[in-house]
Amino acid sequence: MIHIVIPVFNRKHFTKACLESLQRQTDQSFKVIIVDDGSTDGTADMLKEEFPEVEVLFGDGNLFWTASVNMGIKHALASGTDYVMTMNNDVDVAPDFIENTYKWARQKPNAVIGALEMDADTREPIFGGEIIDFKLNKVRHLLQELPKEKQVGIHRVSQLPGRGLLIPRAVFEKVGLFDQERFPHYVADYDFTHTAARGGFELYCNYDAKLYTYPEESGERKNRISKSLNNFYKHLFDIKGGGNLRDFTRFTLKNCPKPYVPYYLVNGYARRIFGYIVK
C-alpha cells in the first residue's frame, strides 16, 4: 500500500484538482494524507465535504514543506504503510500514474523512484531526473540526453525532487525522515535522496509515471518575473527563496565530497547571485 502525503497551504483549487486526478486512477490501491498547515481559504471545509476518504492532519501555519511532509510520513508509517509518496498539491497525475508506479516498485522494491514531470499546459515533458557532478559543479538533465524512443521505463539518477517521489518504508527505517532542521522548505527533497543513496538505496526516475505541473505558478518563477531589490533579497535569503544561500551552503557541506566543497560553494554562490540578474 502507498500512502501519498500532500502538504497544503491555501490554493484549494490546486488541491481539489490534484485529488480529483487521484480519484481517476486506474489503480486505487493507495491512501491520501493531506497536511493542512493553517490554510485560511476554506481548504479544510472543501476536503471534509468533497473528499471524505482523505485523512487530514493540521499544522499551526509554521511547518513549511519539510515539517509538514514529516508529519504525514510519521502518520503513514504508524499506519503500517509499505511505501510513502510525497506530492505537492499543485500537480495533476495521469490516470495510470499509480498503476505505473506499482509496476516498477515491484521490480525495484527497495529503490527510491521519482516521476516524469510534464508541463500541464503544453503536455510536454520538462523534467526526468538529474545526474550531478560535484567535481565540475554541473547537473546533467537526463531528459535532454535521452532520445524520444528511450523516454520510457526507469532510468538511474543521482538526485530527485519531492513531486511524486516514492519512498520504501525501509529507507526511513535506515536513514530517518527529511532533514527539517537544516532544510525547512526547499532542498530537503534533494538532500533526502542523496542521503538515501549514501544509505545504499538506488534512485530512479520512472518515465511511465507522468505528473503534470504548472511551472509559472512557482514562487521562484514569479519572483524572477517581477524583479526588484526586495525580490533579489528574498531569492537569496528568504526561507522560500529558490536561490537561498543558507540552504545551498548546508546542502553542499552535507552532501558534496570534501575535496570539491570550496569550488562547489564559490561556483554555486556566483550562479545564484548573478543568475538572478541575467535570467
UniProtKB/TrEMBL annotation:
<dbReference type="InterPro" id="IPR029044">
    <property type="entry name" value="Nucleotide-diphossugar_trans"/>
</dbReference>
<feature type="domain" description="Glycosyltransferase 2-like">
    <location>
        <begin position="4"/>
        <end position="121"/>
    </location>
</feature>
<protein>
    <submittedName>
        <fullName>Glycosyltransferase family 2 protein</fullName>
    </submittedName>
</protein>
<dbReference type="Pfam" id="PF00535">
    <property type="entry name" value="Glycos_transf_2"/>
</dbReference>
<keyword id="KW-0808">Transferase</keyword>
<dbReference type="InterPro" id="IPR001173">
    <property type="entry name" value="Glyco_trans_2-like"/>
</dbReference>
<dbReference type="GO" id="GO:0016740">
    <property type="term" value="F:transferase activity"/>
</dbReference>
